[in-house]
Amino acid sequence: MTFGSVRIVAAPENNPPFSIEAMAYEEDTWLIMSADPKVCEPQEHPIRLMTDLMNARTEPVGSVLVEGKRPLRFLAVVHDVDQDPTWKEEWVEKALVNIFQEAEQRRLRAIGLPMLGTLHGRLEYRRFTELLGQVLMQTTLKHLRRLWLLSPVENGQDIVEMLKTALKN
Length: 169
What we know:
Elements: E1 2-3, E2 6-11, E3 22-28, H1 46-54, E4 64-67, E5 72-79, H2 89-105, E6 110-113, H3 125-138, E7 146-150, H4 157-168
Parallel strand pairs: 2-7, 3-5, 3-6, 6-7
Antiparallel strand pairs: 1-2, 4-5
């Protein structure tokens, strides 16, 4: 489908419809979700590690951290593991706004976007597409031309139809 000058394609992760310059990922305030699960021997003295842990600060919910080189990694902080449930719709919406702002500031033309809040949270696909539709209608996109919406199902047509409905309202 097309929204303004942006072509939106829903496709599964194993079938990218085009190359991207950035991919968004669900993240939490402590950045646990993106941490390397491999256990390594510490390179620093244990006292230094404990001091660093005591001084550690959480990232704000709704924020987006940018890592790596192209494709960039947009870490969308939509979870707070200190709360139950760990996610809220307003955090997902704020993260979507920040993802598109980052993409525009960096003049990106193609990004990948999972359905935030649906992977590690219980946000329904339909509600995510409604939030995405609201954000798209409120955002001016000058540079972005292609949006790959990572579909959790093999056939992304249902997701596209949900987004079309959301954009009509």
